[in-house]
Specification:
Two copies of one chain form a homodimer. The first copy, chain A, is 26% helix and 26% strand. By secondary structure, chain A is an alpha/beta fold. An eight-stranded mixed sheet of chain A has the order 6-5-4-3-2-1-16-17. In chain A, α9 (252-262) packs parallel to α10. The longest helix of chain A has 11 residues, at 252-262. The radius of gyration of chain A is 22 Å and the shape is globular. Chain A starts with 5 loop residues before the first strand and ends with a helix. The interface between A and B is large, with 37 and 37 residues.
């Protein structure tokens, strides 16, 4: 049965405020249906996109969690590059209060070339902020040192079309089936037939949540309930719980407990403090509470597909595959 | 004889407007006497510094050639990073008209942390813009699509102290020698002795010039006369001379002819258009007129030392050396 969509996302940056040789500042690129979406855009995101073989010209929408430098300073370069290459298609940028000012000031940096195709959307309350035929994006305010939104990307899966019901109602096979499948009402022999008469119950679509930077939030459990994938920040290990509190961050254990309560399928941690040379300690702490967890590396890819387990492809595996070709 | 200084510079970015996987946007880091200087600061410069094992905390002065994005968009990240790490020492930034506005708008990008230790200096005419005991920097306006300055960094070499002359004047060996060596006058037995009486003729210091982006300029010949090193942009090969003119750039041959007329020791080309997969064609075109030329790669290092030939260490050699350790 058609209509499924796949989410394929790649981590472009998994560092916190201070990047390292292996971890760039925050950004995740998400391909979903016919759209390419960025979640945050730290410095060098356009370069990371190049290494991930994704053209910046393809980005349709950018969701910014919050306006700290390590999540936004890739925007000036990205916006200038696409303008320089002649892009005129609209690029939509969503973010909290201040996103408009940010783009205004980016336009003033030197001899900037940015066109009028950059459209900002200021999020001022929780709720659905984007919606098309295939998916929707919901924002929920978290708790950081500045306003920060988590984002949920969710497939809008159409209910199943039950052919036997349609035939029983006397609807002939043909274009009318298509109208009903799309949820439209039809008229047949002077009678109105609603789509609901031939469609099955609502079906769960695939769903992923990205926390942005935040102190662990009770509300995240409901927000990420039954999600296929929760990407949650885990800047510190347990021993630095006090630092996490002070700077508005989570420890790995926090994220694991939320993932468990929310019954998500896969937890991916990100936003590693540069005090850690690797993420093993954090992953182990999370595993005590939630088995299905990995710490993201730059260029790690996650694929979410209906009725299949969430698939993780780390950067090394990709290189190996390319070498095998 | 002491007093010599060494210039050691590393190319952090050698691309033109569109970066590639191997070439970052423009920046050169220059170590000279006790100072670390940046020439331009394209996006990802702080990451390139990390790969070059140079801390952004060490940068004392930044000279910006012009305010196009590919030469400045590393500033927001660099300035925020050093502020985040608690740097309070002044950082001086020199550039053409607009440099002040640039830093103003960089401060407005999101929740910016930049301190009041960033000091801008607007260059409005040709001449010496920086000077300390060891070296000076001279700016000269070039010709690009926007205001662009070339910079010359020149050692201030002290004249030789001639001991025999000092002894003949009856000056006792000791601290007075130091005063005279430093160019100060002294009083001895009621008589004033000027340093010039015991110092030799002025001595040529080491000297390097960086063109920034420019159409070839006649005035560059005088500006870079007898320099140890001329770093000149060469964005295009000969076949695109029309494009070079249109966009305010030089071809490799232009740079070579200037280097020849100026009698420089070493020419290094940079700012390669992304239309070229490698720089061989441009280097060959330059070699027809000037033998001592290389095209810069990211992380190539150049060392200039008095009475020694200019030394080029390419990135591969450095890696090999590190592996040997």
């Amino acid at each position: 049965m058609g209509g499924y969509i796949i989410i394929e996302l790649t981590f472009l940056g998994t560092a916190s405020a201070i990047h390292t040789k292996n971890r760039n500042h925050s950004s995740i690129v998400v391909k979903i249906s016919d759209k390419t979406v960025l979640l945050d855009c730290g410095e060098s995101t356009q370069k990371q996109l190049m290494y991930a073989n994704i053209s910046p010209m393809k980005i349709d929408i950018i969701f910014i969690t919050h306006l700290h430098g390590d999540h936004i300073l890739g925007l000036p370069g990205l916006l200038q590059s696409i303008a320089f290459r002649g892009r005129t298609e609209p690029l939509h940028i969503y973010g909290p209060r201040g996103i408009d000012d940010l783009i205004y000031h980016i336009r003033q940096l030197g001899y900037s070339l940015i066109g009028n195709n950059i459209i900002t959307h200021t999020i001022s309350e929780d709720g659905i902020v984007y919606e098309d035929d295939h998916f929707m994006v919901e924002a929920k305010q978290m708790k950081h040192t500045v306003i920060d939104y988590a984002y949920k990307i969710e497939e809008k899966r159409k209910p199943k079309f039950i052919k036997s019901k349609a035939l029983k109602l006397g609807i002939p096979e043909g274009p009318l089936f298509g109208n009903l499948q799309r949820g439209e009402s039809i008229e047949l022999n002077g009678k109105i037939i609603n789509a609901s008469q031939v469609l099955g119950p609502p079906r769960k679509g695939i769903k992923m949540v990205f926390s942005g930077d935040t102190i662990p939030q009770e509300s995240m459990i409901e927000f990420s309930k039954d999600a296929d994938l929760l990407i949650h920040e885990a800047t510190f290990a347990n021993e630095s719980k006090d630092k996490a509190d002070e700077y508005g961050h989570s420890v790995a254990e926090d994220a694991a407990l939320i993932a468990k309560e929310a019954n998500v399928e896969q937890l991916v941690l990100t936003h590693l403090s540069n005090r850690y040379t690797n993420s093993d300690e954090l992953t182990q702490e999370a595993k005590k509470y939630f088995e299905n967890v990995v710490y993201a590396d730059d260029f790690m890819t996650v694929i979410i597909e209906n009725k299949k387990p969430v698939k993780i492809i780390n950067a090394n595996e990709k290189q190996t595959k390319q070498q095998e070709k």
